[in-house]
User: Which sequence fits this backbone?
């Protein structure tokens, strides 16, 4: 059985990876096998930092040949090192899974010996888990930059999701802080995996397809000087060109002392605003340019949708009973689920303000931007609205970060969140 | 006023609906400790196939999925669940068309509320249920959910743990969902005697270590944690039970 000391080291090393979701795959269990996928994803526990535990997130090894400035496991760092064998990992996954502690495995590794060797051993592990241990639960595998394309393709047929971390939002910062990783070594495998996924889609392959839950990526915010606008521009390009399922942002935490790195963290609010903007791009039909200019940062006081609405007051108020779905989605305070509920309910009867309240539509912000049966319930003064929204923004900060995978059931499938 | 008393099953409820439908003012409930007001008359409803089928057919005529909605709502722990379901049926029969998405009707909002909570808890417990490995290899999961969802969870885990044997035990309602490696059933079960497998404590210990190690101490957000994982579930979670 795995040594608890090793487990501790390799978990500590993996925990800064944000990606945690287990959604997107509906892999079925096979006869005599253990586990299946759940399209909406399932959270199994929550840690005191508010994040969910869905997958067993672990490194195979933290012995690294690279020396990335921001990374606590870089070669020159003086930290405890450990490595696990494929069998140790498999045994742990099976036993945690059987007790319903986890939804699957998130396997990553520092680069030991060589990128090819590392990728090979990672692939061997997941292959063993599927074939020998007959495990059909969710597996998220981290891609190793510079590893041979053939091994990567082999792995992609076994696991549910793969991710290459962009790490930093510009090539310049990457060169400065992670000189061993190049833009090409991250984007090329992403591209060829996307082509393989696309090929399966066009051939309408249903069983055993490549990466059923697609690809994701992650970047560190605040370790380098890029403004939010530039980050979001990159995000949009990744969604468009690479068909990524998610881009994760991780606000920089100063765990490593270096003169190339800022001494203070970026703070949770900036990360939160980026996620809000990310959502607007994916589910609300917003264009990056509407939310944030390329050389600007997102507003701290208002969420991006409020900020946009305040700049475009001439478009409001909209009538709740007639506005098309796309317009409802642009009202501050009305989310995808609420907009869907409204469009369904208004087919039966015209809705008034009370109806909305009873339907659990949050009206604190929305009431300044809508009319119900022609009647307006908000404030007329622009300055006052601005003030109220800012206030509602401040108490929102304590409740932020709800996007860390709330249980997403049928409705979120409809709204496309997964 | 007439009070129709059911045993809590959907079929008894549908039977009661048949009898209650023509009454002007009545209550359907499965609660045995209700306060009787002066002049009220208690009628005990037992399953009657003909009545039950007629109500089910009547509902299905106007809304295909209504029966499924009501069966879900009846799993709720809300003491008014029968009353709310009955009000929904009455509304459906007067509108004579599907009403489930007509959220401007109070009857629909109330029923949706029950279903939302039942489905929400089912989803949550798919993650938060914890199994213990016993010395004969059977997995055992005690829990006490708010709503009556043991069969829903048993079906989920029968798919997932197809080659295992397990018992999911609702210790509040004394219901157990049992899977033997081929098919599953639910039954009455008040107590269970468990002997742990040899490795159980070790893996539980590893899990607790993992839970502690994966947390980022620099970013505390306890409120978020408690919102997603309410304290009432903690007593069955090894990672929360002992050290908090």
Assistant:
């Amino acid at each position: 059985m795995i040594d608890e000391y090793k487990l501790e080291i390799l978990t500590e090393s993996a925990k800064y990876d944000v990606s945690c979701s287990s959604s997107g795959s509906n892999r079925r269990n096979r006869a005599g096998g253990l586990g299946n996928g759940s399209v909406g994803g399932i959270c199994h526990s929550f840690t005191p930092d508010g994040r969910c535990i869905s997958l067993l997130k672990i490194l195979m090894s933290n012995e690294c040949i690279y020396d990335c400035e921001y990374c606590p496991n870089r070669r020159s760092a003086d930290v405890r090192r450990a490595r696990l064998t494929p069998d140790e990992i498999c045994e742990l996954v099976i036993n945690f899974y059987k007790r319903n502690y986890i939804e699957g495995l998130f396997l990553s590794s520092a680069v030991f010996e060589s990128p090819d060797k590392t990728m090979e051993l990672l692939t061997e592990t997941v292959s063993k888990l599927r074939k020998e241990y007959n495990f059909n639960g969710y597996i998220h595998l981290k891609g190793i930059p510079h590893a041979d394309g053939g091994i990567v393709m082999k792995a992609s047929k076994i696991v549910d999701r793969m991710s290459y971390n962009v790490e930093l939002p510009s090539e310049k910062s990457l060169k400065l802080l992670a000189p061993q990783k190049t833009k090409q070594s991250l984007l090329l495998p992403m591209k060829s995996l996307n082509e393989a996924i696309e090929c399966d889609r066009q051939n309408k392959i249903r069983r055993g397809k490549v990466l059923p839950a697609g690809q994701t990526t992650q970047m560190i915010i605040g370790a380098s000087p890029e403004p939010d606008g530039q980050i979001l521009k990159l995000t949009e390009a990744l969604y468009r060109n690479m068909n990524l399922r998610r881009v994760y942002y991780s606000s920089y935490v100063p765990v490593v002392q270096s003169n190339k790195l800022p001494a203070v963290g970026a703070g949770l609010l900036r990360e939160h605003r980026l996620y809000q903007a990310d959502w607007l791009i994916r589910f609300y039909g917003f264009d990056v340019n509407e939310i944030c200019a390329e050389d600007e940062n997102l507003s701290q006081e208002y969420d991006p949708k409020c900020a946009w609405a305040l700049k475009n007051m001439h478009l409001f108020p909209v009538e709740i009973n007639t506005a098309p779905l796309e317009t409802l989605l642009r009202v501050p305070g009305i989310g995808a689920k609420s907009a869907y509920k409204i469009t369904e309910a208004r087919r039966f009867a015209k809705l008034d303000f009370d109806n909305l309240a009873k339907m659990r539509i949050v009206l604190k912000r929305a009431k300044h931007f809508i009319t119900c049966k022609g009647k307006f319930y908000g404030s007329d003064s622009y300055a006052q609205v601005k003030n109220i929204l800012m206030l509602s923004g401040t108490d929102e900060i304590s409740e932020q970060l709800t996007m860390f995978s709330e249980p997403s059931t049928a409705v979120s499938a409809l709204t496309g969140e997964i | 006023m007439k009070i129709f008393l059911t045993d809590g099953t959907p079929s008894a409820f549908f039977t009661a609906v048949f009898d209650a439908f023509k009454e002007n003012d009545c209550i359907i409930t499965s609660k045995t400790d209700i306060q009787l007001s002066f002049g009220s008359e208690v009628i005990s409803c037992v399953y009657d196939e003909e009545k039950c089928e007629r109500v089910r057919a009547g509902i299905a005529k106007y809304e295909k999925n209504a029966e499924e909605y009501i069966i879900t709502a009846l799993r709720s722990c809300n003491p008014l669940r029968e009353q709310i379901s009955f009000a929904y049926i009455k509304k459906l029969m007067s509108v004579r068309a599907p009403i489930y998405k007509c959220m401007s009707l109070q009857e629909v909002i109330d029923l949706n509320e029950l279903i939302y909570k039942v489905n929400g808890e089912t989803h949550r417990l798919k993650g938060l249920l914890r199994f213990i490995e016993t010395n004969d290899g059977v997995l055992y999961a005690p829990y006490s959910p708010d709503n009556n969802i043991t069969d829903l969870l048993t079906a989920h885990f029968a798919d997932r743990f197809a080659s295992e044997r397990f018992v999911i035990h609702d210790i509040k309602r004394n219901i157990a969902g049992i899977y033997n490696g081929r098919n599953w059933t639910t039954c009455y079960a008040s107590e269970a005697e468990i002997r742990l497998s040899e490795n159980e404590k070790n893996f539980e210990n590893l899990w607790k270590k993992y839970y502690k190690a994966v947390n980022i101490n620099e970013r505390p957000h306890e409120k978020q944690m408690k919102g997603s994982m309410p304290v009432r579930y903690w007593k069955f979670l090894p990672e929360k039970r002992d050290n908090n």
